[in-house]
Amino acid sequence: MQLAEKAQTDGNIFESMKYYLLSAEPEKALPIGIQYVKEQISSSDWTLDAVYPFLDLLSYIRTEKLLLHKCSEFRNELLILCGYIGALLAIRRQYTSIVPALYEYTSQLLKRRDVCVPLKIKQLSEELDAWRVCSQSLNKSSDELLQIPPSELQEQIYATMLSRIKEEHLQITIGTNYVSGSNLPGHSDVHISCLTGLRIQVLEQNWSTFCKNLQV
Q1: CB 46 within 8 A of CB 55
Q2: Residue 106 near residue 123, CB atoms below 8 Å
Q3: Which residues pair with 201 in a beta bridge?
Q4: How far apart are the C-alpha atoms of 89 and 83, rounded to whole Å?
Q5: How confident is the model at residue 73 (pLDDT cuts 50, 70, 90)?
Q6: Cβ burial 165-188 (10 Å sphere, 16+ → b, else e)
Q7: How confident is the model over 142-160, as a mean pLDDT?
Q8: By CB neighbour count within 10 A (0-12 exposed, 13-18 middle, 19+ buried), where does 40 fall?
Q9: N or C: which end of the chain has fewer CB within 10 A?
Q10: Is the pTM of the predicted complex or chain greater than 0.90?
Q11: Record's superkingdom (predicted)?
Q12: What is the pLDDT, as a whole number, of residue 213?
């Protein structure tokens, strides 16, 4: 706890949050991290890389701590900020199918929760519309272009979004995720047979297992 307080006094917010997360009161990292993120996105030149690591760190706080009554306000703000930043991260990584849902999720939370965050429902709606129109017009051929091109305002909003998102330095596989099996999360864990090196498959009753091509 002393290391966390010292790091906070020295202005090292990220290190302070990490020390709090390792303490007996990890929820103390909430106000520090959320305040930092709100200050960042209140500026005109903030970027996704400047705020995402802080929200990612806050995700390590256990749910039972977040559900404490004293954390209710910070929990609501965290949900909204994560929804918005998650939408921008999805755009960057080209998970286009979930972008509208994340924007809608964030907008609904803003409507229902009494919070103080530098985000407005109108802003989210304008960003989503600009992303839809501009990204579609860029990805279509000349024969498939939309009848109504993006407005000047939409192009400006989209350009601002791209300047915040930037490219990710980490090389990862992007695109749609496909999950085999229908009994998630029962089938979501993967175990490898030490005999064959093949995936062990779980039967529908969730307790019998077998490994393909295993002949004894």
Answers
A1: no
A2: no
A3: 210
A4: 10
A5: very high
A6: beeeeeeeeeeeeeeeeeeeeeee
A7: 80
A8: middle
A9: C
A10: no
A11: Eukaryota
A12: 44
- Give the separation between CA 33 and CA 54, rounded to whole angstroms: 6
How confident is the model at residue 212, as a pLDDT? 46
- Report CA dihedral (58, 60, 66, 70) to the nearest 10 degrees: -50
Secondary structure of the chain as H, E, C letters = CHHHHHHHHCCCHHHHHHHHHCCCCHHHHHHHHHHHHHHHHHCCCCCHHHHHHHHHHHCCCCHHHHCCHHHHHHHHHHHHHHHHHHHHHHHHCCCHHHHHHHHHHHHHHHHHCCCCCCCCHHHHHHHHHHHHHHHHHHHCCCCCCCCCCCCHHHHHHHHHHHHHHCCCCCCCCCCCCCCCCCCCCCCCCCCECCCCCCEEEECCCCCCEEECCCCC
- For 42-45, the CB contacts below 8 A with 24+ separation are 42/118
Phi, psi angles (nearest 5°) of residue 35: -60, -40
Evaluate whether 209 touches 201 at the Cβ level (below 8 Å): yes
Q: Which tokens is 73 given?
A: 């306000």
198: tokens are 């093949």
